[in-house]
Amino acid sequence: MIGGPEAPAPRTSDKSKVEKLSRDENTPMRWEGPNNDTWVSEFISEPFQLHPQTSEPAWFNHAQVFHWTTFPAELLLAFKRTKDVRYLVGAAFFFAVSFVTKYGLLGKKMALEASFGDGTPINAFEMHQIRKAIHKNMVLNRWEKGDILFIDNFSTSHGRQPTYDAGRKVVVAWSDPIAKSNMPVVIDGEQQIAHGSEWQ
Fold it and tell me: Who wins on pLDDT, 105 or 121?
């Protein structure tokens, strides 16, 4: 997958600071645009990793987050789950805006995008299959005040559902982060996955 940066985009307009932050985070970058002031970062990321303790293959990728269809698709899923028409209206609105922006205004170039490693676009149907597999395995947790949830974020993805609850506040903390490896290996002569993640 080629997509947006794994590290957060720098929150400064000082180009020298942006370049330093990118170097420090080992984030590839370049400047584009008519004024050479648009920060662009692309990387190729293997979709699977081997779990550092169990050696099981795990989906370890953000293709479904960076794809241009993601936000409207998640709003549509929220509508199907809740029957709240605001989500359906939002899904239609943001799909139209994203489609016009991608194919009309920006010439197929979005702020966040995902493609196959050779640059071939991941179409909406292919991304739907990825999203469908994720949703099929999704477990929703209804939060109550004081709840604490621990997950192995290597074998279990995390996320949040759209909400109109303006008072929702979720605090996240990480422990024992893992550096992703992009060393491809072949398992059973077929599936290429990344191997050899290191504990930091």
Answer: 121
